Amino acid sequence: MKKGWNFFGALVLIALVSSGVSFATFNYLNDSISRKNAVPESGSSGDLVHRTMGRAMGMAAYEQDFTTVADNSVHAVVHIKSTVMTQGRTYVDPFQFFFGGGRSFQEAPRKQEGFGSGVIITKDGYIVTNNHVIDQASEIQVTLNDKRIFKAELIGKDPTTDLALLKIKGDDFPFLPFGSSDELKVGEWVLAVGNPFNLTSTVTAGIVSAKARNLEAMMSASGGARIESFIQTDAAVNPGNSGGALVNTRGELVGINTAITSETGNFAGHSFAIPTTIVSKVIDDLKNYGMVQRAFLGIAYNNITQELQKEKDLETLNGIYVTSVENRSAALEAGIEVGDVLVAVNGAKTDNSSQFIEQLNRFRPGDEITIDLLRKGKQMSVKVTLKNKQGTTDVVKQENGKDMLGAKFEALTDKEKNKYRINYGVRVESLKEGKLKAAGVMKDFIILKVNNKPVSTPEELDAIVNSIIQDGTGYGEHAMFIIGMKPDGHAGYLAIDLSEE
Fold it and tell me: How many domains are there within the chain?
């Protein structure tokens, strides 16, 4: 990695939904978290007329009018308020670790509110936003530009691409049609529409500065998304713009605004949007399958640098260099080998890893694609049938956490909370064959936290378990760590593997 990029990466800033603290890494755009009931400022977006001089190279001055596109776009972009109930720390008597005694005590729950943006994409109320806008939210409220307020249902989310799909009840909503991010050109005008700093219905304009921008080094350091091929623009976006629309001059949605680079946390000239080539596939999967159908080729690879080109005696700096091929993978079956340079997918050039990832994520397991490659200077094309993570071509269905655990749960009554001196938890009402029974859990066991996330209702527990099954965790591939309480009041700790057997 070049030293200049390391320096640049050190200047970016992160502000996640769960924190209002700014520090130097990478900045998601909805960091307006407050424990107070912040009220969005009201106002009108007004007319946006962007004038450019354009006298370079002898060109005459001209005027670009965005008023019609801006007026249509603001009605389809919504304000999102997400409410997260954060529970206080659990205090445990240290003697219980040695003698099996002691009880747990908890602080009172606290409410935090985060703010962001979303885009209505269908007339019947489907809304796309960023996952980090609504992550861990117990309630999601959507406010339209005409000030109507709706409670939103979470249809599905994909942390890997930082996208989420919501639904509000009703019909005949204003919406933005999808445009083609493939057709965007560097230098083309775009509008960013959202709610920066809770200033609703805000429109800014800029140009496409770059495409297929990969910020993986910064995002990986922050635990963020790994699948990236951002559209970079100089349209001004700020905290609160997350999940808002990037719109072309035809009034079509071409991206979802997601992040900025900044030393201060506010706009400093660069903003990044997820292209609709990725958005449309992810949202379609969430709507139809409940989870993203991700296709895998089964290779490890590197971008080609001058050093790698010289070391491997390669004829090009374009493409990705295959460093390993997994057993039983789609790549192995197609005849792809270590040392191959992959240069195109279905005719679309893949000069770097971002372009390759963007192309591959258009497909599902079972799809057949054509990969162009160079092998020892010889040009070749191979047909590849893509597979899922399990190594098959089947569509992956979202597993039901309740069925896997093999238990029925009930929220605690006020009497039970007072008895155990706790503020939240769910009780195991009944058991059948499943992961909990196999781990030795008995009826009336109380689950307090799963992977350090407090649990107050059976629905919250189900959502956490399904997220572990679908996305894995930072603790392990599909590990479920439970802090709970036995019927006698003694603390109980469990580690359960939720991966498929």
Answer: 3
Active site residue 162: yes
Q: Residues 253, 115: one domain?
A: yes
Q: Is 71 a catalytic residue?
A: no
Is 79 catalytic? The answer is no
Q: Is the pLDDT of residue 230 over 80?
A: yes
Catalytic: which of 242, 271, 354, 467? 242
DSSP for residue 307: H
Question: Residue 312 is inside which H or E element, if any?
Answer: helix 306-312
Dihedral angle over CA of 135, 139, 143, 148, nearest 10: 160
Domain end point (choices 262, 285, 308) = 285
Is the model's pLDDT at 435 over the cut of 50? yes
pLDDT, tens only, 238-262: 999 999 999 999 999 999 999 887 7
Catalytic residue among 75, 79, 132, 270: 132
Instruction: Name the DSSP letter for residue 296.
Output: B
Where a domain ends, among 227, 262, 285?
A: 285
Structural domain span for residue 348: 299-385
Q: Is 186 found in the same domain as 149? A: yes
Q: What is the DSSP string of 428-464?
A: EEEE-SSHHHHTT--TT-EEEEETTEE--SHHHHHHH
Looking up residue 434, the CATH number of its domain turns out to be 2.30.42.10
